[in-house]
């Protein structure tokens, strides 16, 4: 068996030990005589898996008691609609911060449900930075302020938490969820799809302050009403059981690594290997402002784009896959989520040096 270094932006590489445990438990989960996939979501076995996944997540992120943790379906793109449906709460408009492709998608979708005030945007600089909070034109009557805490395509990440006063802060954390400690109490709502740092596609995690739910727009589908889901322990509809099981195993793995502080330290070490190299060469470049560079997704370009295909081909031949940048921006992108070992990043940098030496 050969496992490659998989730099995919998502679905993405998972810890090998988690995959091995899932394989061991595939046919017979702990003497139950069945696979987790085959279990009733109302049975005691799955209820214990679900409860344990939530307990671990709460412990790792130190989620305060007055927050609900929901395991839903639909992914972050569905949340782009579900958030305004639930969070407008009778108010007219919401503030959005525009930092790139994923913010733009959120803004476009929210406009179907209410007014959107784009309170700040980094469009002018080609989405290579996070606008400083001093420049934000926030509306004190806004229902909430929405940010994308890590732009997966642009490689732009918030390394600070905005201060939105009494207006709830809402974050799409899809691509940096569980990559570092977060002070959940600073947010009204956090959401993210699982398929980067915590498991297979199919489960969406929503962490929401309990006083903000229960005022969904009447058109809100019941399965997407946070209050209804919270009252039913995320089992108003059949939850994505297998994805929740794997997420639970990944949470255990994070705890074994020493928790989120240790995960963050490791992520910083890994990203530094790549960013430090990008500082030393002009053959490759990353356009993002230094203080806003993502620890999770590192886009980089070759100055001579005619070499892109040769670079990717050589990477494939060396067992480094999925380095092609998003179709909207081109170039390369290395996604180096929690489960990417530092050896993968070191191998990539060694290859970048080799490629530059033979083509530079
Ligand atoms: N937001 C961000 C920041 C993302 O990275 C993604 C997926 N790449 C999404 C939203 C959309 O997620 P999904 O396709 O699971 O709905």
TrEMBL record:
Residues 4-348 form the Aminotransferase class V domain. It is found in: Cytoplasm. It catalyses: 4-(phosphooxy)-L-threonine + 2-oxoglutarate = (R)-3-hydroxy-2-oxo-4-phosphooxybutanoate + L-glutamate; O-phospho-L-serine + 2-oxoglutarate = 3-phosphooxypyruvate + L-glutamate. Pyridoxal 5'-phosphate binds at residues 102, 152, 172, 195, 237-238. Its cofactor is pyridoxal 5'-phosphate. It holds the Pfam family Aminotran_5. The modification N6-(pyridoxal phosphate)lysine is found at residue 196. The keyword Cytoplasm applies. Keywords: Amino-acid biosynthesis, Aminotransferase, Cytoplasm, Pyridoxal phosphate, Pyridoxine biosynthesis, Serine biosynthesis, Transferase. CDD domains: PSAT_like. Catalyzes the reversible conversion of 3-phosphohydroxypyruvate to phosphoserine and of 3-hydroxy-2-oxo-4-phosphonooxybutanoate to phosphohydroxythreonine. InterPro entries: Aminotrans_V_dom (IPR000192), Aminotrans_V_PyrdxlP_BS (IPR020578), Pser_aminoTfrase (IPR022278), PyrdxlP-dep_Trfase (IPR015424), PyrdxlP-dep_Trfase_major (IPR015421), PyrdxlP-dep_Trfase_small (IPR015422). L-glutamate binds at residue 42. Belongs to the class-V pyridoxal-phosphate-dependent aminotransferase family. SerC subfamily. It comes from Variovorax ureilyticus. Pathway: Cofactor biosynthesis; pyridoxine 5'-phosphate biosynthesis; pyridoxine 5'-phosphate from D-erythrose 4-phosphate: step 3/5; Amino-acid biosynthesis; L-serine biosynthesis; L-serine from 3-phospho-D-glycerate: step 2/3. This is Phosphoserine aminotransferase. Binds 1 pyridoxal phosphate per subunit.
């Amino acid at each position: 068996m050969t496992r490659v270094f998989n730099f995919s932006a998502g679905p993405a590489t998972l810890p090998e030990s988690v995959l091995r445990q899932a394989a061991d438990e595939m046919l017979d989960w702990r003497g139950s005589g069945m696979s987790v996939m085959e279990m009733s979501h109302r049975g005691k076995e799955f209820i214990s898996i679900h409860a344990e996944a939530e307990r671990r997540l709460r412990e790792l992120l130190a989620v305060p008691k007055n927050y609900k943790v929901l395991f839903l379906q639909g992914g972050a793109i569905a949340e782009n609609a579900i958030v305004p449906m639930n969070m407008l709460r009778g108010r007219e408009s919401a503030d959005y911060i525009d930092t790139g492709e994923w913010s733009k998608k959120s803004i476009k979708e929210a406009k179907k449900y209410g007014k959107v005030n784009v309170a700040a945007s980094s469009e002018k600089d080609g989405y290579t930075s996070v606008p400083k909070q001093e420049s934000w034109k926030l509306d004190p009557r806004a229902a909430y302020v929405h940010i994308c805490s890590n732009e997966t395509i642009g490689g732009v990440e918030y390394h600070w938490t905005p201060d939105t006063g009494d207006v709830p802060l809402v974050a799409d954390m899809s691509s940096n969820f569980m990559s570092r400690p977060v002070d959940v109490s600073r947010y009204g709502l956090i959401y993210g799809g699982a398929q980067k740092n915590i498991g297979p596609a199919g489960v969406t995690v929503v962490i929401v302050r309990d006083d903000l739910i229960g005022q969904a727009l009447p058109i809100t589908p019941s399965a997407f009403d946070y209050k209804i889901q919270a009252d039913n322990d995320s089992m108003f509809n059949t939850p994505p059981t297998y994805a929740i099981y794997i997420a639970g195993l990944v949470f255990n793995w994070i705890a074994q690594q020493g928790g989120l502080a240790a995960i963050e330290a490791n992520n910083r070490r890994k990203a530094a290997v790549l960013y430090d190299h990008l500082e030393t060469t002009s053959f490759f470049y990353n356009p993002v402002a230094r203080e806003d560079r993502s620890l999770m997704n590192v886009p980089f370009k070759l100055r001579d784009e005619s070499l892109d295909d040769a670079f990717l081909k050589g990477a494939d031949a060396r067992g480094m896959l999925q380095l092609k940048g998003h179709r909207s921006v081109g170039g390369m992108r290395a996604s180096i989520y929690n489960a990417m070992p530092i050896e993968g990043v070191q191998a990539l940098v060694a290859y970048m040096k080799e490629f530059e030496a033979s083509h530079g």
